[in-house]
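A common beginner's mistake is to predict each chain separately and then try to dock the pieces by hand. The better habit, illustrated here, is to supply every component at once so that their relative placement is modeled jointly.
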Amino acid sequence: MSAVTAEHEHDEHHDHGPEKGLLRWIITTNHKDIGTLYLLFALAMFFVGGAMALVIRAELFEPGMQFVSPQFFNSMTTMHALVMVFGAVMPAFVGFANWQIPLMIGAPDMALPRMNNMSFWMLVGGILLLASTLFMEGGAPASGWTLYPPLVLQTGAALPFAIFAVHMLGISSIMGAINIIATIFNMRAPKMTLMKMPLFVWTWLITAFLLIAIMPVFAGAVTMLLTDRFFDTSFFNAAGGGDPVLYQHIFWFFGHPEVYVMILPTFGVASTIIPVFARKPLFGYSSMVYATAAIAFLSFIVWAHHMFTVGMPIAGELYFMYATMLIAIPTGVKIFNWTATMWQGSMTFETPMLFSIAFVVLFTLGGFTGLMMALAPVDFQYHDTYFIVAHFHYTLVPASVFILMAGGYFWLPKWTGNMYDEKLAKFHFWLSAISVNILFFPQHFLGLAGMPRRIPDYAVQFADWNMVSSIGAFIFGFSQLLFLYIVIKTIKGGTGEKVSDEVWEDAHKHGLEWTLPSPVPYHTFATPPEKIPTEHF
Amino acid sequence: MKTKQLFASLLLMAYGLGTAQADYTLNLMEGVTSISKDVYGLHMLVLWVCVFIGIVVFGAMFYSIYFHRKSRGYQASNFHESTKVEILWTIIPTVILILLAIPATKVMLEMDDVQDSEMTIKVTGWQWKWEYEYLDSGIRFFSSLDEASNKARQLNSGIDPRTVPNYLLDVDKPLVVPINTKIRFLFTAADVIHSWWVPDLGWKKDTIPGFINEAWTSVEKAGTYRGQCTELCGKDHGFMPIVVIAMEKADYAAWVAEQKSAAVEAASAAEKDWTQEDLIAQGEKVYANNCASCHMADGAGIAGTFPAVSNSPVVLGDMNAQVELMLNGKGMMPAFGQMLDPVDFAAVATFIRNGLGNAVGDSIQPAAIKSLQAAIPEVVYDDDDE
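With all components supplied together, the output reads:
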């Protein structure tokens, strides 16, 4: 009886659109609105974190101290990393997840829409709290994003605020992850079995489990910092019987899976885009799924390769070296599979494809340096130099960030119903792809030649490549304003050309989202789709 | 077209910069120890393996990008699975990894073996200087950034770093070691974690408060080798270089003798009575090298972070309270009790009361400091479980 009434009421409200005005964005529970919020917030933070990077590169343009004090420089390196990781890259992928997962699995919305809204606003709160530390007595945290004690305990008034910011970001991430898992497990269209899900959905499912496993660990670590500082505990204080290295073990148990949180969804988007423009199904779908799971598993058992120089027993050094080298195998499988997907395809090179190919190539370079650093004895030279700075920026900027750009260009026409300016977008691609290499490639040389990371000034033999790197940084940074312009222009109507439902030629074979009208209506899949694309089999 | 021009001009610029000042390097240095040479060999091996794999993978990819494109009318095939190929490209990388792991394990074991060392040097990291203690001969001293670099590295100093010899890579007192001697290093830290790295020796090691790490080296060639702290340790992390001078054994013995007689001299200097003028003159130098980086050269400090020395209630107040604070440190202020010898300590304590705009008028003698320092308990270390 009551069930019937509920259904009836539901029908009456079926076609309601979004709230009017600003309130729509504050109280929204619609996955598309929340996805948009996440993406716009991430884009804004990308520019904030980018501005901090430009402060760093401006100071490093020439030897000598020209613009900032060493303490502020350290705050910039710390905040740049925290903002980019927690404010830009992670939220951007959550934005993609919000938009795309329901569309890809044929669900009407996320499983827990109210929590979805809450997790977004917790993120905003956390990042604002973190940013507020810049204006506090003693300045923002300046101990690197790893927040190693005892150094981090020398932070001024900012320390508890930074720690609470981490707690809020952690809660936000966990809620987001729970939501994604609940959606994928419960709301797939009837024929959408697990092994038929698009790879983007698979990589996010695995990423969400990583997040639930690691965020509490990080929260625990920073809480111990809090009690060490304010409640006289000695978790990390050797004088009180504690162990400063314990923090590093806990941090990297979180930190290594954390970097995979940023790269696994990247793999997912690349695996979605490349087949569409190669006009071929993804090569080795099931091996891609297994490789993703293998990488996620390995991420939990390799953490101490970030700590080869802390003085571990020889057995520890060797174990973490071997385990780390193993990551090359599933990662290699992925790269080979993408190459095989392109092989004998009928490729076209629209902007999303260009960014995806650049991702495969440049991420592979980052993978090579990763393999080099896996060898513990050689890492005794590479560790904490610009070589590692080059390494992880290759796996983050021309990898995660490029794929975020690729995904933006790929789905924006679907979301808005407007086509972006292809000519301008290609210009943005080439500018980014070239300048990102001018920016980061010379850092390999700097590291090998002996320049430590996180230093505000350097010996004069490092001057030339630092100048080249800074020039690259400024070109790369300002090129991204072009991206902002293209996105705004597309939202406002784009080229004026009306895009078809499938947007890209034969895209409907590759994903459910391309079977919907463009722009995507505010409510989709109120009834689950009957057929699902079978292209990847 | 525009991007190509831009790229070309950048390349030219990079090339021009390179030829104008050709003292940069692109690759890891081979170094001057057997370990550093092994590490270099391993680095080159894995680099060439990566280059080879890169050529194969990128070769296939770019072949495909060039030939398998729609604009050339290429028809897409529909293959999307091959267990055979998947197994092949799982096994080949595995074999390559095993071939890399074998030499890496050998070098790792060799690096770890500190047995049969002929001498031991204890290295302690401080914010922001290094302390070296020769456990066999009792020589002990601090090593910090040299004065010329320190002046040039101040914000807007107006000094071109290019005119400073070995800018940021020179110290006031280098570490001296004999060549062809197996030297064991013990590493610890007094405040936060630092890391001791001289690229020519082939490794770095973290120095961690409360723990002792070990490493060893045997330098094959006499010379001067430079390095830096590589673990972020606070604001002056970039300004605590390491200089190692490796000498022939005979020269090293002469150096040891010289250090021992200098230590005797310093001890007697601490016993004699100093005039206030001499203390202030000496103290000004000590202040510049040890205090100015936080409290600033004029004693004004940095509001909110580093308190001013000029007109400070601590400095203008009781001498004993001021000395106590300097001995034991507080918050970010390091404990200078073990860092400065009695003469330097008394000199700087006197200087700040009678300089930088302060005029208290009193002074303290090195002998008084010496007895206070003797009362500081020795730091007890947990041994690492290696």
